[in-house]
Amino acid sequence: MVETQFRFRADEPVADPAVTVDAFGEQTNAAAVRIEPGDDARLLLPFIDRLKLVEVNFPTFGDGRGYSSARILREAGYA
User: Fold this and answer.
1) Is 13 exposed, middle or buried (0-12, 13-18, 19+ CB in 10 A)?
2) CA dist 72 to 3, 35, 76, Å?
């Protein structure tokens, strides 16, 4: 079975694996992060200049915590 992936951006894809929010600050070479429900996206704000990819986990349809994380990052300047 082949998984279909969609890409809506024109920039280069990030080939680095995403790390957890907790591990991101400790890994100076990390460029991709995965935000799980309950993670505090504000912990990423000091590192916003090196974020190239942010994955947000939405475990259930009605779980809106990922939207809150995305809003925190967008308001801080992440594009």
Assistant:
1) exposed
2) 30, 12, 6
